[in-house]
Amino acid sequence: MYRIEVDQADLAASRFGIAPLLETLNALGLAAGRVPAGPLGPWVERARPRYLPISGDPAIRTLTFLRRRAGYMADFISPPPARPNLTIAEQLATMRATPLDQAREEIARNLVGLPAPDAVVRDVLDAPDMVERLATALETAWHALLEPDWPVLRSIVERDIVHRAGRLAAYGWAEALDGLTRQVRWRDGVIEVDILGGGDATRRLGGAGLMFVPVVFSELGLAVEQNWPYTLMYRARGVAALWEGRAPRSPEAGPDALAKLLGRTRADLLRLLAEPATTTWLSARLRMSIGGIGDHLAVLYASGLVTRERSGRSVLYRRTAVGDMLVGTS
Fold it and tell me: What is the DSSP string of 251-314?
């Protein structure tokens, strides 16, 4: 078990980030079958045809070989975000700047506990341009697997960040960590983290704060290596729901008065907006075009049933008190 000691200064210094490079590596592992798909099975089925054309690339094979469900993974391949809103290009630049000696040391640690690599993988790992080859392979995987879905994926993690950051700022550590996962607990000034295959150590943030990184394509992870910000990675809320179909209203639920008043789509939108969401997330959830969702949101906004505010590059919508009353009485 890892124990992370925190104080009041760490609360103020803690922040949230998005890690597209880490998501790319994890998505590659899922598409290659290296880790169980779990709730992401529908996404894996959709992504497999995009994965197969790149699967024979030696550097892609090397990345999938290094991907493991538990245990250390080379940090330079998926560096924790040093600040919020990093782009994939910025993270790839950080990766490419890794000194070869450092990369080889991290790869050696990554290989512990894995079977011996085959000749193709060994050639990539022994190459003098190993870092560049792996970076190029991750860039290829990004374009093939994640870039088409990135607006939706980004909206998922942004929605989670708004929720979790609000709880951290308003109520402190205990509330922010509540419901994250059963493997993370708050206990008297210490964050306890149980990770499959993890170590047993105590770390102190010392005023530097903790980087929270919600992710879509993996579960719990903790980075407590030197020269990197201490980072807690956890699965964002609502991932499984993204690939579910639009759920029909149960006949047992009785007449849908709200749908009769507003129309089915606007009623569904109002119900989904108990928490902030982007038009991209809503369009994916309801299987409608972004333009169509935007038109409905404009009507709800003009009617005073939803509010909107900018968060970074996105606009988030949420029910107003009047919207809450309508949903509560429907």
Answer: GGG---HHHHHH-HHHHHHHHHTTS-B-HHHHHHHHT--HHHHHHHHHHHHHTTSEEEEEETTE
